[in-house]
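Exercise: predict the fold of this chain.
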Amino acid sequence: MLLGQWATLGSGWAVPCATDIAFSYLVARLIFGAGHPAIAFLLLLAIADDAAGLVILAVFYPSGALQLQWLLLSAAAVALGYTFQKMKLNSFWWYLLIPGALSWIGFLKSSIHPALGLVPIIPIIPHAKTDLGIFAREELGRDDPLNAFEHWWKNPVELILGLFGLVNAGVGFSSVGAGTWLVLAGLMIGKPLGITLFTWIAEKWFKLEIPGGMSYRHIVSLGMVAGIGFTVALFVSTAAFPPGPTLDAVKMGALGSFFAAVVAFVGARMLGVRPLASEDSMEVSEPGIADEVAGEDAPELADTAA
């Protein structure tokens, strides 16, 4: 609106919502160190971020006139999945190839983006009855159907997403325009401000606690890391705009968000955040045990905790 181009660019308001999980994870490991609790915080945030982006994609960017009666096919697919559970079918392929395919068709025909077609099917795939923690290493050793599904598809999905980014990022540097700067502003300024603000609101108003071993220095730093949009930002941009110069300019913004990694490195160093050495890595079980675990503070923290 400030640029007077709302009619042209307004449909791209959701492009900066996304965080590229893979790239932000790699950058966060370099900034915080492999064992830092900020990494788990960032990953959980990025997963929620991308899930919200997909919901926005379904609600605000339908591929045509909504035909919600086709969602009955997806509902039937869920019922069929529950039947497979009762039959004790413990291979994820049963759920993927039959209920999954039916649900995908239902979403496609209803004009809701079919990328969401498996969302109602995932909860009905047989899974472990206990939760060891969202990022617990012990989860990697589980062989229930849902974990088998995740392990089998992990590498193919990463490859496909990488190819998607390469194929859809083909724009010239001359494509820079107003959309480029708006996307960059949303990702590289809006993300750290928004994450820091809502963390403060959650702490002060809702009396929630920041994860142990983290302070607002780490929150601001991971907010800068979350500014890397790339693949999901490209995905949303292709749904928001038809092919043309506006789409190319917005794509350039998604590509330019890689610069958020440089900003995050510099910003973290200025804030005094240092990588947590592997020998200092620790599992923090109680929030508030300490406010600093990075750099020079880690040995002192270990002595205090002992």
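Check your answer against the key: Residues 178-204 form the longest helix (27 residues).
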